[in-house]
Amino acid sequence: MSLHEPTTAPDGASATGPEAATSAVLAAKARKGERAPKGRAKLSWRKSIRRDWQLYTLVLLPLAFFVIFRYLPMAGNVIAFRRFQPGGSIFGEEWVGLRYVEMFLNDPTFWNVFGNTLTIGLLSLIFAFPAPIILALLLNEVRTRYFKRFVQTLSYLPHFLSIVIIAGMLLQLLSLEGTVNQIVRAVGAEPVPFMQRPEWFRAVYISSEVWQTVGWGTILYLAALTQIDQSLYEAARIDGANRWKQTLHVTLPGIRPTMITLLILNIGTFMAVGFEKILLIYNPLTYPTADVIATYLYRVGLESNNFSYAAAIGMFEAIIGLTLILSANAISRRLVGTSLW
Amino acid sequence: MKDSRGYRVFQIVNGAVLLGVVFVTLYPFLNIIAQSFSGETFIRAGQVNLVPLGFNTTTYQLVMGDDTFWRSYGNTVLYTIVATAIAMLLTTTYAYVISKRGIRGRGLLIGIAVFTMFFNGGLIPNYVLISSLGLTNSIWAIVLPNAISVFNLLVMKAFFENLPSELEEAAQIDGLSTYGILLRIVLPLSKAVIATMVLFYAVTFWNSWFQAFLYLNQQELFPVTIYLRNLIAGASTASSLGSGGGDLAQVASNVKAVTMVLTVLPILCVYPFIQRYFVSGVMLGSVKG
User: Fold this and answer.
1) What is the domain count for chain A?
2) Looking at this predicted complex, what is its ipTM?
3) What number is the average pLDDT over the span A203-214?
4) Whole domain around residue B280: which residue ranges?
5) What is the pTM of this model?
6) B104, B140, B222, B256: best mutation site toward chain A, by most A Cβ within 10 Å?
């Protein structure tokens, strides 16, 4: 890297080459009477382009990708305030102000799906977030290495499956002939058509969410666990702490930064509940509990062609998401000194 | 060191709990495998769980004799290869540039990428864009819009940053251009991370369905995930299957299981070899910076 940055000594341990280059650059700048800040001299744009133009050409394609497929759609949100005509400009035809925002604020279905989104998000946070921590702690107590490895390897598996496969498995397992109803029958109860019952939807969603994510989620925690200083455990033992106390006072504080980072990320994606999964497993019968903002705006926008209205809802959701992650980050920085950036 | 009696009891309980976790994780797979080999009447009677009943391979022959299935499968293979190639090209070049600490505008370039992790245009503006670009019903609607995963980008960046800079310096002194250094020095040193990234992307694209669901409406373009989704949703596109006789829904249950098995099969086959790469990739990505 110091190739392109003769002015910064990497890790403070670089050879004389770059340092010599540094002083050469500094000297050149001084001769021209240019500003030469201490330690790190910044080249002007023109000079850096002349020096690094080959590097800059490398970013052109990916940069075009970001502009076209990421930033243009962001700008395209302007259709939330403009009337959009299919086939017309992607930025809409004429300003209509807050008409679409007022529309969803007065839409009872919107508030219903908003509530569903919050409920599902909150339940995921309560159940799916701690699950990998618990599994990692249990794995950490395993003495037999092969057994630990075996459990770990298999628990990652669901992470690699297409959501379509997961939906298919859910529908098979929970159908009237499926395994769950075989158990229900075995204990003498009436079989339940789970996927048609709104009162069962949340349980189905959350338990499959845990199934999908728990194993993969342990990776970062297990890594954090290996980083804990073993002498802390010895000290705790000498102080008479049993295994449980050691877990409470050494292990948990040791993985706290990881927990907080992942918590912030989870809160940031709170509103973006598993849209694709819900789209695959819900049906009009379960709408009362299953319909979330994302699925509602999908139907409003792409099935009923109310693009502007759906865009207004989508923007509202994205802004809440961004606000959530920024505030979670700020709060954790203030309270515990850990933050994403 | 000897454990207390309570802890020894805990060890046994813990082992049992973890075995339970393994069983619950594996059960749905074993269940669809059992169903895929089972006779229709047994599934319908709700008797199939772990062991196939009325063992047969007719359903496999039925599905594998279906042209629509193979065309979808071929589409998935094609989309996965093209999308992964594009993704690797874009991710590698961008990651290489933003790994250079000295380049002007580096912070801006990183910011442009990272911001998209936390804020995105949303479904509707994306849909409008892809439609007005005229990408609907073409492979480009599948392979372009998600070409860069910022997470993968940051993993590669972290890897490039940790390469020893002396080699590149020496290469520059020998007169190699930036492109030459990237192609002949950096990439050969980065085989491990490149393999990991290819796997990351390939699995993602193999599994993806939503892009295709949104932008493709011609059956001959569908990837296998959409073929499967349509089977599950009951809007059976495989009219050739089961239309011959008897109960369509009944055959579908069988066919669904077989299609699921055949769709996950490639992933299950490579899984034992690739999962450790994924794990190391995640660890690399978790390095802050």
Assistant:
1) 2
2) 0.87
3) 94
4) 58-286
5) 0.84
6) B104
